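By way of example, what follows is a protein record of this kind.
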Amino acid sequence: MRPPGETDGPSRNEPSSRGARELVRHLCAAAALAALTLATEANAQDRAERPSARNGSVRIAVFDSRVVLDSMPQRVAAESEFALEQTKARTMLTLATDSLRAALDGFARVESQLSPRQREATVMHLRAREMMVEEMAANLDHVIMRRQSELQQPLLSRVREAVRAIRERAGYDLVLDRANEQFVVDASDRVDITREVLRELRGRNDIARLPNR
């Protein structure tokens, strides 16, 4: 008798195992080839559906958001509200600064009459107020700019919707804003669609009339 587990040479199942592995390899290769074929066909179909990319041409238009926004009556209301809030914020900062200065002057007049504990407590209180005023001053411009952006956002959204409608209708691939000189250094009037944007907004009742050019 042979010890348990001891075999006499290769198992009779080894040829069938080798055949199974070969079959798996062939199936994997066939699947990879099929995936590559499908990807190639999909890519070709995508290029066929995009003639501008196939021809290597891209349709670009520009418009001037400054002209558009100046023609919107809602801009005047937004600017008036912004100016009012800006004045209010600066007035609050001025009042806080004047109040702090008055408190410091008052402390200087009575400092010699205070006990060490009173003096320490007053100094800590004044320092806390001073830090609060410094934070108000540091954040004022940021708060004002953020509020200005919030007030302008509804107007800009209407402009973007009008531009998108024209782009989709006319088949443009890209529309740039002439107001952003970082991206548009110069452009021909032939590709300027500012007038079309104004007409689109007038059709949506966002402007009363077209401005004179």
